[in-house]
Amino acid sequence: MTALTMNFASPRLMLVAGGAVKQIADVLAKFGLRRPLVVTDPFMVKSGHVRHCIDPLEAARLSVGVFSDTVPDPTDTVVEAGVAVLREGDYDCLIGFGGGSPIDTAKAMAILAAGGGKMRDYKAPFAADKGALPVIAIPTTAGTGSECTRFTVITDVERDEKMLIAGLGALPLAAVVDYELTYSVPARTTADTGVDSLTHALEAYVSKRANPVSDALALSAMALIAPNIRIAYAEPRNAAAREAMMLGATEAGLAFSNSSVALVHGMSRPIGAHFHVPHGLSNAMLLPAITRFSLPGAEARYATVARHIGFAATTDSDAAAAARLVTGLEELNRDLAVPTPSEYGIKEADWNGKMALMAAQALASGSPGNNPRVPSAEEIVGLYREVWTGATANR
Ligand SMILES: NC(=O)c1ccc[n+]([C@@H]2O[C@H](COP(=O)([O-])OP(=O)(O)OC[C@H]3O[C@@H](n4cnc5c(N)ncnc54)[C@H](O)[C@@H]3O)[C@@H](O)[C@H]2O)c1
Ligand SMILES: [Fe+2]
Fold it and tell me: How many CA atoms lie within 13 A of 163 on its CB side?
């Protein structure tokens, strides 16, 4: 092994257990925090799910504020509204409760409240290392892994751009990871968020920035997610599958936060920004084709993954095992009923018209530069085209 230089960051505390959310007041107490603002989405409030977080806090006699105006694919305008609510009260921490969208909103609020200005001022490669107050993250999807990453993804509404914001200011102080909160996640969202975490682990593992610790976490995450994603999709109350998916999502988050994501995420964010496809679903649409394109850059690594998660036999050659990974991902998409962009309702002319802009935005995010095979802008346009035609041709 060559001399290693590694910079590994994670939350100071991660409480992982079924029912762990009941201990949220103890977690705050450990850090001397008493005045939380819970950041969540309107569904969590309407459905009553947010009570899982608020009840134990109120039982501990804490006064709790709630900001529940977060939106899927959080926007800079919502973050600004959140900061205004934060300034009205005397809060000492933020609790992000929900999927990646509310957690990312809470993180972005902490960053914007610390430095002021506009969310786009913090776009990577800027080091968004300062947060005005600590964030405690409680994920209810399995998932983005946002509870333990140093990233937040915020849409610039004026420019239709999903911005990656990176730095220690986006890293939660603590994560409370309770798979029981995911029993109510609908099948479609279970599939999409599950593929998101599988993509995090795979991209972390093949990334040029992989390191021994991210490798161990990525492989462990994939071994948890691959055999359980179909079960969680079909049987929402299967405790073993939900637990494995949640742990897998968290491990994958730690892995990519300390390695990186790569071309799939680079190309996925613009699809989300322009066509409002849920994040995990646009990853799924891209994953087989982008993996096929990337194989020559890291064939042995892709082969290791395929063998590790049972898509290939231990006796398969690297070339055969890597090819089986692509086939396995195509089968997974079929089993999880992942629509093509056209089945999702996107018009071909709109897709074609945005391809060059999406390729430029993908490259500008920096993520494609971490891919084992780094594409040119023309190659990215070709891949967007392939995802359109290849996907329709295969059906
Ligand atoms: N910060 C990071 O490191 C990171 C990593 C990957 C993705 N992201 C971002 O996270 C966002 C996506 O997050 P997400 O995929 O978790 O989706 P989400 O937070 O947008 O939630 C999707 C839907 O699921 C619902 N939901 C959430 N939990 C539920 C539950 N327990 N029961 C029933 N319904 C539930 C929500 O109300 C919402 O309607 C995107 O903006 C993406 O870019 C961030
Ligand atoms: Fe993701």
Answer: 23
